[in-house]
Amino acid sequence: MRIGWYINRLRGMEPAEVLHRLGEQRRRIASRRRDDGWERFASPQLHPVLHGLRDAALAATPAQRQATAAAAQNTLGGQFSALGRTWPRRDSDRLFPPELWRLDPVTGRLWPGPETHTFDIDFRHGGDRGDVKYVWEINRLQQLPPLAAHLLLAGDDRSRMAIEAAIDSWHSANPPFRGVCWASGIEVALRAISLIVTMDLVGDRLGAATRQQVGEILAASAYWLPRFPSRFSSANNHLVAELAGEYLIGLALGTDSDAARGALLAEARKQILADGAGAEQTPTYAAFTAELILLCAAAARQAGTPFPSPVEARLAAFANFVAWLPPAAGFGDNDEGRVLTLGDDPDYVRSVAAAIHGFLRMPGKAAAPDDFRALFFGTPSEPAPASHGLQTFTQGGLSVWRGEMNGRGIDLTFDHGPLGYLSIAAHGHADALSLTLCVDGEPVLVDPGTWLYGSGGVWRDWFRSTPAHNTLNIEGKSQSIIAGMFNWSHKAAAALVESEPGTHWKLRAQHDGYRSRFGVVHQRTVMHQADGIVVTDQLLGGRRVAEVVFQLAAGLGTNRDRSTIMVRRGDEPLMAIRFPDAAVEIRAGGDAPGQGGWVSPRFGARQPAERIAWHGEVGEDGIKIHLAAIPPS
Q1: Of 176, 218, 170, whose CA–CA distance to 37 is shortest?
Q2: What is the spatial distance between Cα 521 and Cα 539, in angstroms, rounded to a whole number?
Q3: Are strands 584-587 and 611-618 parallel, antiparallel or unpaired?
Q4: In 10 A of CB 245, how many CB atoms?
């Protein structure tokens, strides 16, 4: 498995990247010999980064105060939950034992600690230790800013003691550059950002020893991040996080941060496309990228060196993109990465969009009343009108229609974008020409989700495969060929070939993912008619036995009348799907991928859900499937 991973990874590299990786390996070997111990990283004087943060936090609304207090009380009570898992509860007098930073809450096993250099740990193939995502999550120290805000707002001295205990424990258990917590630059950066925000909120209330430890962690991080950057095929959201960390650490340490700033500005325009969609083809990673850039933009503005208007324009474009997305919209990977959080963050993408509108003083949809990010960035200047009609995001490759059908509100998406970003398309799914559909704001036809990364095994492959998505597949094969947990050996190219606006709009798109193996191109036309939406699938260049899938949201059921499937929620009918004939199977769950339908509502969780699949021959003449909302009773 490891040899295969390296072979497939090398196939995704250009010669320049291979040379870069060789140089990186030389630096790693040198690091093993010399880069140890806190004594090399004397604590400098720390400077405020987010100058107005404390005053903004003190203006918190009652709802924000209550939510912040609840998050702080969870931490003070020894609780931590993330990625669909809850860590073992700790006693209040021993909140941060040294083994906490190495514990996998799923397997109960410990990852290597200070006895092992970080580059000697194979975190990609953790074996029986579990998914490294879990152990990294608690090491981001994102529970500290809510504690700091609670200390500031309520004067709860237990929060101060908990912050000091956490920093002391982490500092002692994770010397540079030992253990699994230093293995990834994005983790180093997010941890540093948590510490910077904490210090800006309550640094003057923390003891001298704690401030020194924070300074040492930031100094070590400032040394580490530029030595091992994510470049070439790895230069996705990881690089944005690393550059954001470098830039903010530079401000905190009072050192030159111009290089990191310039590189971050360049990445902002690469990874948020001109139409606002994310280059990685996943709304949640786009929101994560936007939140990192937004935090740095706030720091730059307060330092008197605001980011240039083209970068702010990209942030505004992303917020506009989000305004068009249906409720609970998701596609591509989602590992629930956040920058500022109280913990559970169910409407993260819209929260970031509201924060952007608040920062730019633009109209928009406000986030929830208890939204934590609003403390940092403010709220939209006024409500924005709801978006209706057909909108196509050309660069992102997504069309959205919002309208009414038979007295029901409908949100539909049609994906005609690329697989993902850069040569390995790490976080993309093989979902070209797939649909999602909401009825009255509730998901009905859904993207299946993510499930797990490193420990996902065959299920990781299933959740990003074509047969798991609402599109056509041939012989159960994916349009793009999976070659590792975050890699593809062949990538389908999709394109929108026709778009007719108007009351009875029409969209037509193609992808070539099956051309080399099956000699055909998949073309899908989605057309709005008076009595519903007609989906026409064609295989140009030949005839093949194919499967057309509609994955339902969890909790929905079906009734069948020959070739018509009625989708219902409880006893309420929502939508009728009429197929060309009765060759339709409906299955949910199963012990192995492909036996039935599954959805992953969040990282680390999965639920059985009905998967409707039509089977039959498809050629250039195509097959038509009719979708119609059922009028409410």
Answers
A1: 176
A2: 5
A3: antiparallel
A4: 29
Residue 350 near residue 398, CB atoms below 8 Å: no
CB of 597 closer than 8 Å to CB of 551: yes
pTM of the model: 0.96
Q: Which long-range contacts (CB under 8 A, 24 or more apart) does 22-31 make?
A: 24/228, 27/227, 27/228, 28/119, 28/228, 31/117, 31/119, 31/177, 31/227
pLDDT-derived band at 4 (thresholds 50, 70, 90) equals low
Tell me, what amino acid is at 541?
Answer: G
What's the Cα-to-Cα distance from 253 to each of 203, 292, 302, rounded to whole Å? 14, 19, 16
**371 and 360 Cβ atoms separated by less than 8 Å:** no
pLDDT digits (tens, 9 = 90+) for 549-566: 999 999 999 999 999 999
pLDDT for residue 606 is more than 90: yes
At residue 497, the 3 state secondary structure works out as strand
Is 3's pLDDT higher than 70?
no
Q: How far apart are CA 285 and CA 349, in angstroms?
A: 9
Distance CA 625, CA 576 (A): 10
Strands (E), 47-201: 81-82, 85-86
Question: How confident is the model over 454-498, as pLDDT tens digits?
Answer: 889 999 999 999 999 999 999 999 999 999 999 999 999 999 999
**∠ CA(369), CA(373), CA(379), 5° rounding?**
60
CA–CA gap between residue 482 and residue 429 (Å, rounded): 9
388 — pLDDT class (breaks 50, 70, 90)? very high
The beta strand positions in 256-397, using DSSP E, are 389-393
Give the whole-angstrom CA distance, residue 41 versus residue 21: 26
